[in-house]
Amino acid sequence: MASPLVSKYPQCLSYIRRMTGSLRDVFQVPSHQQTRGKKRLVKVSTVKVHLLQNVPGYGRRGAVIPVTTGMMRNIWYPKKMAEYVTNDKLQQLGVKKDTTIERDSTFRSNTERKLDKEKEKYERTVAAAESAVASIEPESSIPIELGLLSPERSMTILENLVPPNLDFYRVPVTPSEAPQKRVSPSVRFNSVISAAAAEVKEAQKPEVTGIYGSVTTTDIAANLKAILAEDEDGVRVVLSPEDITFVEETSRKNGVKRLGIFDIEIRLDDAPDAIRRTIRVNAQD
């Protein structure tokens, strides 16, 4: 059985917090809340030094300037660029102890000053040249007319420049040796009559040799453009693969895939007539 004294104490935590808060306000007990103040700037420690040589951005040789202790300890003193200054040294140099010393940030070396002078001289030269160019009156330019040729003029140029025959070379496809076919079931396969009949039948068929790749109107147009490029007026002719067609019906649209001789027609847009040329697809060795 629980003691009757235990039940008199509060059992709720929120109630305990409210009671302790009210007691803290009555007795003015400071809370444990942390308050932040202003950030304090870190004070950089400096030391007065006596320059033993000219240091651009700091001062001339013999000047007394303040510099950070780290720079003096790690750079200037090991390289004998400056030396530490004591109170006795300040008196020898005629510098009072309480005198405010600052570095000469405008000091620059002779090399830097020479470069600045050369830069200013170059800028003056450029400005003078620009003003001289601006003062010159531009001459009246002669307009150059590069109009397109008429279809009739272009066809005349093609008629004069394009040769009658155009040669193309492709690698032929080697036909595989097919077995002889029997002429009649009653005749032996290797008989003389069967061979003679086969030769007659093969002689009646036209020989067609295929090629690797093809010769298309694009190839022909590229060949014609190379020919026209060698002439002053031919360069101005506008020719495309659509202006070239095969006279005969070919196995491939706008191209051939076998050795032989083929006729083509060249007709530009809005041209009244076409010119006919011959292309020869030869076997490449």
From TrEMBL:
* Coiled-coil annotated residue ranges, if any: none
Q: Show the Pfam families listed in the entry.
A: Ribosomal_L9_N (PF01281)
The residues covered by the Ribosomal protein L9 domain are 47-93
Biological-process GO terms, alphabetical = translation
* One GO term describing the cellular component: ribonucleoprotein complex
- UniProt-listed InterPro entries: Ribosomal_bL9 (IPR000244), Ribosomal_bL9/RNase_H1_N (IPR009027), Ribosomal_bL9_N (IPR020070), Ribosomal_bL9_N_sf (IPR036935)
* UniProt-recorded name of the protein: Ribosomal protein L9 domain-containing protein
Q: Which organism is it from?
A: Hyaloscypha bicolor E
